[in-house]
Write a structure and sequence with these properties.
With 296 residues, the protein is an alpha/beta fold. The protein folds into 2 domains: 163 residues, 3-Layer(aba) Sandwich (Rossmann fold), CATH 3.40.50.720; 116 residues, N-(1-d-carboxylethyl)-l-norvaline Dehydrogenase, domain 2. The protein is built from 12 helices and 9 strands. Strands 1, 2, 3, 4, 5, 6, 7, 8 and 9 form a 9-stranded mixed beta sheet that branches. Strand 8, helix 7 and strand 9 form a beta-alpha-beta unit. Helix 8 packs across helix 10, helix 8 packs across helix 11 and helix 8 crosses helix 12. The longest helix is centred in the middle third of the chain and has 29 residues. It is globular, with a radius of gyration of 20 Å.
Length: 296
């Protein structure tokens, strides 16, 4: 393959995605606010760019893997932003978790500039991003898929096409985040109760992960608690944001979400206690009177 792809944002997910694209034969131009991250990627065979505009000018497809809508706005329309540098007919692939209505509007804004757009939030974590096996929840015009389809397939094992215009990708991602946030909060509550009751946490983990009460989030996140390692792969503040989006979406149609509301308050409590930048499993730290396993 000879296509050039720009990846903007080389965090836990973006770096793995950029590496997956390289393995698939794409020429990857990478940009990150931490320039050393892009330079390290260049040492692996990619191309480091100092700004989104520089990366976008060299690419047919621009993949944005930043945290939220505000950062995406900066990537596109800020100083040295990508939008002004992109060639007509290029595709902007937006991988952040955002308000679906904002994503719908962004498609129109980019269309006015002669650019195509894919609403394409992602899921699966850093390991699956690195392996090229994550999930993408996408929506956009057929022309955008025609141009970006092989790029999507190089990054993800599951590329769901959810509509011919932006919005449904972000809607489905928000529903996924509802479940993810509630499951993490419930897993933390269960582990905290076990600790308070004096159950050996390793034994509890072993039993639950082989029983009907297990969930992917319990198995994955409570392993972090057992190791005492709260290095952020997905931070507490991510779920403050994402569950906030869930609630905003539901509030617009007066739809009740009692479990989501409770989980959001739990993450808010953890963030306000100073754990916002820790791994989201640190939501367990809101529970009083428990002794958490220490880091080995």
């Amino acid at each position: 393959m000879s296509e050039s792809v720009a990846v903007i944002g080389l965090g836990a997910m973006g770096l793995g995605m950029a590496r997956s694209l390289r393995r698939a034969g794409f020429h990857v131009h990478a940009s990150d606010v931490v320039i050393d991250v892009a330079r390290n990627f260049a040492a692996e065979g990619g191309t480091a760019c100092t700004t989104p505009a520089e990366a976008a000018a060299a690419a047919d497809i621009v993949v944005s893997v930043v945290v939220n809508a505000a950062q995406t706005e900066e990537v596109l329309f800020g100083q040295d932003g990508a939008a002004a540098a992109m060639r007509k007919g290029s595709v902007f692939v937006m991988c952040s978790t955002v308000d679906p209505n904002w994503s719908i509007t962004l498609e129109r804004r980019l269309a006015d500039l002669g650019l195509l757009y894919l609403d394409a939030p992602i899921s699966g974590g850093a390991a699956k991003a690195a392996a090229g096996t994550m999930t993408m929840m996408t929506a956009g015009r057929p022309e955008a898929y025609d141009k970006a389809g092989r790029v999507l397939d190089a990054m993800a094992a599951n590329v769901y096409r959810l509509g011919d215009s932006a919005g449904n990708g972000s809607k489905v991602k928000i529903i996924n985040q509802l479940l993810a946030g509630v499951h993490i909060a419930a897993a933390a509550e269960a582990m905290a109760l076990g600790l308070r009751a004096g159950v050996d946490p390793k034994a509890l983990y072993e039993v639950i992960t082989h029983s009907a009460g297990n969930s992917w989030m319990f198995e994955n996140r409570m392993a972090h608690v057992l190791s005492g390692d709260y290095t952020p792969l997905s931070a507490v503040d991510i779920f403050v944001k994402d569950l906030g989006l869930v609630l905003d979406t539901a509030r617009a149609t007066r739809f009740p979400l009692p479990l989501s509301s409770t989980a959001h308050q739990m993450f808010m409590q953890a963030s306000s206690a100073g754990h916002g930048r820790e791994d989201d499993s640190a939501v367990i730290k809101i529970f009083p009177g428990i002794k958490l396993p220490a880091k080995a």
